[in-house]
Structures are given as structure tokens and as C-alpha cells.
Amino acid sequence: MTNDILEQVAEDYFRSEGYFTQHNIKYRPHLSGNQYAVNSDIDILALHPTKKVNDSKRVVVVSCKSWQGGLNISRHLKILQETPNRMLSGKEIWKTYREIADKIWAKALKNKVRELTGSDIFTFYLIVTQFRGNRVAWEECRLFRNNLDGCDIKLMSMQEMLTPLQRKLTITPAHSELSRMLQLIKAGGGSVTYDN
Which of 46, 53, 70, 131 sits CB 3.0–4.6 Å from 19 for a disulfide? Predict the structure, then answer.
């Protein structure tokens, strides 16, 4: 399966930071019955070879949401905490964030990360096109922190990845079509900029 564009940006960003990456890793809870027959996936799993084993930044788990309108932090947190079964964009909102909003899925995620990296601690990144609201409210949400006990939770926008990624580009052909396109834009004297 091909990564979507936001996943490509995220993978390129973490590779530029020295991480080895793998993407679209399937997992699910292993409980009796078939209520968890559907897989979820880790969009990107990144491992930094030189960070210490007990450093939460050694292992990074990334979930990308390529919504055109971005993330409205206060709205999504309120719905998640008050009416998690509410339909939003065609599915119950808790399912959109299952790996951090549901204890059973969070445990399955932690088990998969441990299986692949040997680590129980990691930094979980939700990466979105853009967000509105208080980043700290998302990163410190008690529901998420309880479900991913011991792990850091971070929120990052596309701009926060793309800007430093552009600065690090060299003339050596990049590994993805997206970064290669950024290299060609740079070679032509241009850059991708944001109006803020």
C-alpha cells in the first residue's frame, strides 16, 4: 500500500532526523470472540539507532490524519470525552483515535510496538495537516495519557515537518517522490512557504 502524501512527509521528516522507518504495520487486540476482527495500522513506526533504550524519543509511533480542514482540538476532545460514540465523518469518533482513545486498542498498540522494537515506551505523534486550538490540551489529555501510560504524546502539523525538511535537503536524490519534488523546487530557486 502506498503512503498518502502526509505519511510521506512524516516518513521523510523522521528519516531526516536520523530514524529508521517502517510504515502501515497492521495490528489488533487479541481477545476471545471476533469483535476485533478488523485491523488497525501504525502509519509509521520509527526507531532511532543512537538514542538510549529508556528514552521515549528512541521509538516513535505516528498516526496521520490528512483532513483538509485540519484538527479542531477543543471540538474533538469534547466529543471524545463526552460522547465518544458520536458519528463524525461517517464513523464513531473514538474509532478515529482508537489507539489512544480506547484502552484495549492502546494496549494492542503497545504490544505491537514492544514486539517490533523491544520497547514499552515511545512517543506517539498525531500528525495533521493543520490544527486549531491548544496543543497542550491534546498532548496532556488525561484519556490519552492513561491509555498510553508512560509514553509521550505529541501533536504536529504538516508545516512543522515540511519547513525543517526543506532546510535539510541536499543534492543527493531523496528516497521519496515528495522529497525529490522538494529538491527540484529548491534546485529551481523556489521553496514551499506558508502564510502565517
Answer: 46
Dist CA 167 CA 186 (whole Å): 10
For residues 58 and 144, give the distance between their C-alpha atoms in angstroms, rounded to a whole number: 20
Considering the entire predicted model, what is its pTM? 0.90
The pLDDT of residue 32: 60
Q: What is the CATH number of the domain that holds 143?
A: 3.40.1350
Tell me the C-alpha distance between 21 and 144, whole Å. 24
Q: Do the domain assignments include residue 78?
A: yes
Bridge partners of 125, per DSSP, are 62, 154
The answer to the question of residue 47 being in a domain is yes
- Burial of residue 116 (number of CB atoms within 10 Å: 0-12, 13-18, 19+): middle
The upper half-sphere exposure of residue 69, i.e. CA atoms within 13 Å in the direction of its Cβ, equals: 5
Lowest average pLDDT, out of 54-63, 71-80, 136-145, 167-176, goes to 167-176
